[in-house]
Write a structure and sequence with these properties.
This protein has 165 residues and is mainly α. It has five helices and no strands. The chain is elongated. The protein starts with 7 loop residues before the first helix and ends in a 9-residue tail after the last helix. The model has no long low-confidence stretch (mean pLDDT 94).
């Protein structure tokens, strides 16, 4: 048992999932930087600042995830090659269409959200409330950001939104 009262065996599964999230966040972060630098046209003012807000938030989350791994006495991934090997999120490459940028971010969010839900489940199995609380906060934040980006994207792609229940 470590100083948190959790054994390495108990936190191993959570740690693996946290490292997966860390790798995905690194690629997400770089996609956001790419879009921030390359957005232009009529949506420049809307998106340039939004992309900056998102990548600054991602930068903080990356540090918090790595520090949670260290708190659990596990090692965070820390090389670009490890991130590229582990991540499900892919580098966006050259994208110049602002609507496609937002669509890619929303796709990245789906992957991050799935990772977060997995972590919460695995951490719950061993009563790792610290991880659950941290990731739960991340989850509610990214869900709200996804809603806002989807509302922006939907209004510009002429989708019927929202659906009445």
């Amino acid at each position: 048992m470590n100083y948190l009262g959790l054994s390495q065996e108990q936190v191993a599964s959570t740690g693996k999932s946290l490292n997966q999230l860390l790798a995905n966040y690194q690629l997400y972060y770089q996609n956001l930087r790419n879009f921030h630098w390359n957005v232009s046209g009529e949506n420049f003012f809307d998106l340039h600042e939004k992309f900056e807000d998102l990548y600054e938030d991602a930068r903080l989350k990356i540090d918090e995830i790595a520090e949670r791994l260290l708190t659990l006495r596990l090692r965070p991934l820390s090389t670009t090659s490890a991130y590229l090997e582990s991540a499900k999120i892919e580098e966006a490459g050259k994208v110049l269409d602002s609507h496609k940028m937002v669509k890619i971010i929303l796709e990245n969010h789906k992957i991050l959200i799935a990772d977060m839900r997995t972590i919460i489940s695995r951490a719950g199995e061993v009563d790792d409330e610290g991880t659950i609380e941290m990731i739960g906060g991340f989850l509610s934040e990214i869900e709200k950001k996804s809603w806002m980006l989807d509302a922006w994207h939907s209004s510009r792609s002429k989708k019927n939104f929202p659906v009445e229940v």
